[in-house]
Task: inverse folding
């Protein structure tokens, strides 16, 4: 056991967005200073936005640097073998005061060819929802590039897209190619592949403070879109003190833990684990030390942490690579 391995937290990377608000502070305790803060990047190795350790012996060290020094200990032997020194996932909280743009993400093949990047399969866990808050996920019925372009040109794209009401605890799994938008009034925990490739299809004709519209990527999106109707809503069990599977895909596994009292965790050393606290508070007891977390906290458990206890009353998302 590496005595310097411990649960890692990171400084939030805060992003102003035209659609952002202040709920990341009022609901999730993030240190925002802007009234249009849309995103808190909790755990990232995206170039230019690399997370920095906020606690313990490695405080001030970039996650990429730490992985280079301790690849197997941080990532896990299986993850390191598959991805090398790349951290394969990106974790965020989002506050949508207004609707996000209607957008789509390319798959791995297209993203690699065009941008030398991973694709962007992602999932949303709804943490807070205003009355009648909704999301856009895919087409109402099977469509085609011709129908899509026709409605885009007529400014009626929304008419052929599927709109679903969202409430706290809802999970939506979005494979690459799914046209989507987070609607106004939602706070979301987002888990995704490490990628910042987004093709914006429609932005409701809005303008920023300088009177500028945001760039659209209509032509790039044509080849990326899945024109079939898709089912994105995920049902899942909520057995207390258990890891209830929510999403299990080639890129990540996400479990939901309704923690009451205590849960012992034993790791294989094959993969890191990430916990996102979506409600309540909990602590991790490891190697004689207790670490405390509240709603809105995200913590990276290095793969070398082979045994520890979770204790408290909380709703937790547990994420790792299968």
Result:
């Amino acid at each position: 056991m590496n005595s310097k391995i411990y649960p890692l937290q990171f400084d939030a990377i805060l992003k102003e967005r035209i659609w952002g608000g202040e709920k990341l502070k009022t609901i999730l305790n993030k240190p925002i200073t802007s009234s249009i803060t849309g995103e808190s990047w909790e755990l990232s190795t995206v170039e230019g936005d690399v997370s920095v350790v906020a606690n313990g012996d490695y405080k001030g060290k970039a996650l990429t640097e730490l992985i280079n020094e301790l690849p197997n200990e941080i990532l896990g032997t299986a993850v390191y073998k598959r991805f090398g020194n790349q951290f394969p996932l990106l974790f965020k909280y989002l506050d949508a005061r207004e609707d996000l743009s209607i957008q789509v993400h390319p798959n791995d093949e297209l993203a690699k060819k065009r941008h030398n990047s991973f694709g962007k399969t992602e999932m949303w866990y709804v943490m807070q929802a205003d009355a009648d808050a909704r999301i856009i996920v895919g087409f109402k019925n099977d469509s085609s590039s011709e129908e899509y372009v026709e409605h885009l040109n007529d400014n009626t794209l929304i008419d052929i897209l599927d709109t679903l009401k969202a409430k706290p605890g809802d999970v939506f799994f979005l494979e690459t190619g799914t046209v989507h938008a987070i609607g106004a009034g939602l706070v979301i925990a987002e888990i995704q592949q490490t990628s910042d490739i987004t093709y914006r299809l429609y932005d409701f004709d809005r303008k920023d403070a300088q009177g500028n519209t945001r760039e659209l990527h209509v032509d790039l999106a044509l080849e990326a879109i899945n024109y079939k109707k898709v089912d994105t809503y995920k049902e899942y069990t909520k057995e207390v003190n258990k890891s209830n599977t929510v999403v299990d895909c080639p890129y990540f596994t996400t479990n939901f833990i309704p923690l009451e009292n205590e849960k012992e965790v034993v790791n294989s050393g094959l993969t890191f684990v990430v916990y996102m606290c979506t409600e309540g508070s909990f602590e991790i007891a490891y190697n004689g030390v207790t670490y405390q977390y509240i709603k809105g906290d995200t913590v990276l458990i290095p793969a070398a942490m082979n045994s520890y206890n979770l204790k408290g009353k909380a709703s937790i998302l547990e994420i790792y690579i299968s």
About this structure: The helical segments are 23-26, 63-69, 71-75, 77-83, 108-115, 145-153, 218-224. Residues 145-153 form the longest helix (9 residues). DSSP finds seven helices and 19 strands in the chain.
